[in-house]
Design brief:
- This protein has about 290 residues and is an alpha/beta fold.
- The chain has two domains: about 150 residues, Rossmann fold; about 130 residues.
- The protein has eleven helices and eight strands.
- An eight-stranded mixed β-sheet has the order 3-2-1-4-5-6-7-8.
- Helix 1 links the parallel strand 1 and strand 2.
- It starts with a strand and ends in a 7-residue tail after the last helix.
């Protein structure tokens, strides 16, 4: 089944349309309620592709890829099932399982990637990791698609999708939260936001390389893993005027100490207790809870 129609032409749907076309897949039809999104996708595909504002106007297709917001997937799937009961329905949600697609051939195909813009989506999609969950027909189709895109397929059980999606949110979304808090501290130290982001970005890049090379938590560096309680004390003193930032720092520090213990990193128990007691005196987040 190398022919597919796509419903929902946001960043993910449009990026998949472009990537699949480049790999020889036929795009049978495109649908989106937004005329601008529909026109943009057709222009990017640089060819005659039937487009419609209504699902009911799409031509028949062996596969329909649903790339709409999570809350709209079930409704779109019901409409497609009524029209094309034998088709394979595929959605791109990281949260929902394929069961939301109803009776019939089904697949959940989620790109484990960050798409901040359409340009980034088109660039980042090939070679990404994809999480697959569905019936036999769906999984077979999904593996072929991921292979064609040069990606890596990971299968998951339907019941575990929420935990998987949570993990992705922590790694991607909350990294931005971490950078935001770090940039506020940089700004308080007199370093402008733009320069701070450039410097911290290079630091994060190096840290990620270390994590891939050395593993997690073995790639951890800094005062906590050195057992340097004097540095932690200085940090806490400097945070006295910044209550919310101090609370965030203490929470992350306690969680890091817990990680050091769980990972059996070479820090003396006495140093761990001293740092934990010091942070607990300043924190509402007792022992990482």
């Amino acid at each position: 089944m190398t022919v597919v129609s796509i419903v929902g032409l946001g960043r993910v749907g449009t990026a998949l349309a472009v990537a699949l076309r480049k790999k020889g897949y036929g795009i049978q039809g495109l649908a989106d309620r937004d005329p601008g999104a529909l026109k943009r996708a057709i222009n990017l595909l640089e060819g005659e592709v039937p487009g419609s504002l209504f699902i009911e106007d799409l031509p028949s297709s062996p596969v329909f890829l649903i790339a709409v917001r999570d809350d709209a997937i079930e409704g779109v799937a019901k409409r497609l099932r009524r029209l094309y009961p034998a088709a394979l329905l595929v959605h791109t949600s990281g949260l929902h399982s394929s069961l939301i697609l109803g009776e019939g051939h089904r697949l959940s195909l989620h790109p484990l990637q960050s798409f901040a813009s359409l340009e980034e989506a088109v660039s980042n999609l090939p070679g990404s990791y994809f999480t697959l969950e569905g019936d036999g027909v769906g999984l077979e189709w999904g593996k072929k698609v991921v292979g064609a895109l040069g990606g890596v397929a990971m299968e998951i059980n339907a019941a575990q999708k929420p935990l998987y999606h949570l993990a992705a949110c922590i790694a991607s979304n909350y990294l931005i939260t971490l950078l935001y808090e770090a940039l506020k501290a940089m700004e308080a130290a007199g370093i402008p936001w733009k320069e701070g982001l450039s410097g911290l970005g290079a630091l994060v890049d190096g840290t990620l390389r270390n994590a891939k090379s050395c593993g997690v938590p073995q790639a951890l560096t800094g005062p906590l893993v050195r057992g340097d309680s004097g540095t932690i004390e200085c940090h806490l003193k400097s945070l006295q005027p910044y209550g919310k930032l101090k609370d965030f720092y203490c929470f992350m520090a306690l969680r890091t100490l817990q990680m050091i213990r769980e990972g059996s990193l070479p820090v003396s128990p006495d140093a761990l207790r001293a740092m934990e007691d010091m942070i607990n005196r300043e924190s509402n987040h007792r022992r990482g809870n």
